[in-house]
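Give me C-alpha cells for this 146-residue protein.
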Amino acid sequence: MKNFAKWLGVIAFVAVIGFSFVTCKLDDDGGMDSSLNGTWINNYVDWEFKYNNGNFENSTISNGTPASKGTYTTDNGKMTSKTTHLWGKGVYLTSYQLDAKWYTKAELQSFNIGSLETLMQDAYTVTYSISGNTLTFSGGAVFTRK
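Here you go.
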C-alpha cells in the first residue's frame, strides 16, 4: 500500500508537469510565443506587423507598402528582433530612390545611408504583453489583432 501511494504521487506529479507543457504558449521551434502569430495593426502610427514563428514583416497600413522584415525570438514576455531586410521603396528608404525590392544591410551599405546602423542594428529587445486581441509593447505602443 505504501508503494502504491508513492506511485500515485509520482503519477500525479508527472501529470501536472505534462499539463503545464501542453497548456503553455511555447511552440516546438525553440520557445516562440505562438500567441504573437498573425497580423497586428496600429492605426495611430499607420503600422501593420505580421509575426509568424520567428519571422516578422512590417508595412504601412494606408498604402500596404512593405518597410522591413527580419527575425525574432521570445522569452518570458521579451521579444528580441533583428531587421534583416529593408524595402527599397519603404518608409525608411524613400529619399534614396531605390528599386522596389528587399535589400540586406550589406547591399545598403554602398548607398551611404546615414541611419542604416540604427535601422538594422544587430538585436533590439522590447517587453511585450498580449491580452485578448491587444498587443502592448514597452513604451506604450498598442496593436490590435487584425
